[in-house]
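Journal club side-thread
Mid-discussion, someone asked how the predicted structure for our own chain would compare to the paper's figures. Pasting it here so we can look after the session.
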Amino acid sequence: MLDPAQLAALTAVHRRGAFDLAAAELHVTPSAISQRIKALEEATGTLLIRRGQPCEATATGLRLIRHHDEIALLERSLALDLGLAPGPATLRIAVNADSLATWILPALAATRGFLFDLVIDDQDHSQDWLRRGEVLAAITAHNGPLQGCDTLPLGALRYRATAAPAYLDRWFPQGVTAEALARAPALTFSDKDRLQARWAAQYLRPGREALPTHRMASSQAFVDACLAGLGWGMNPEPLVAPHLAKGSLVELLPDTPLDVALYWQFTRLAAAPLRPLTEALRRAAAAMLVQK
């Protein structure tokens, strides 16, 4: 039987990246954290934490962290069934920034009993957090399958290639062409962000070199940068619809949306405790995402 206090110590060290920060979170001394990790490593017969800056769990350590999270949710669900009043459970999920900026927050607010620990990553990579055992659920562009997990379709987040009218006048005086696009600065969320390249390949320039780009990891900054004329970018339709209606932003090419299908993927063991959140996400997605 694994010691819950030792599992909690392992989880805190990995997520906070240091023994002293884990100790502060769990209200014990760093020495106590070290002793618990050592005892758990001896009990399992393997290294669970790679000491460094930051400290990180090994593959086996990540599996134990998932076990810790699943048990915490199941125990809270049992307490509710018994008519007890458990405190909120911390739920770590991976979410893409554009979903967080457009449609997910109402679902989180409607779900009681959780403290949400959100990992922000690109929808094409958020499943990796679930696969490694670092989260119990993820909003992802992958429809599975993933061992031990269930997947539910949510709909598609629609993007529009947008820019300010003055930007188009400056960079595309002869119209939006593949040649002009190769010179016009774009906006990219991070090196993982392929939306601008996907749109360009779909509508203008398949198989060409990388686009010149500014990098900024913020959904709202994307909109603001487009409004300021800094570059063009793929913006979620819910964020830019008012600007498109006013004419402060325009599409590079009329009616050329890019729809990104999204899925709610979660560990099967946590399905029952997650059901209220799952239903809230499905309602929010039905209201805001494109249903095909």
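Post-session note: The chain has a mean pLDDT of 93.
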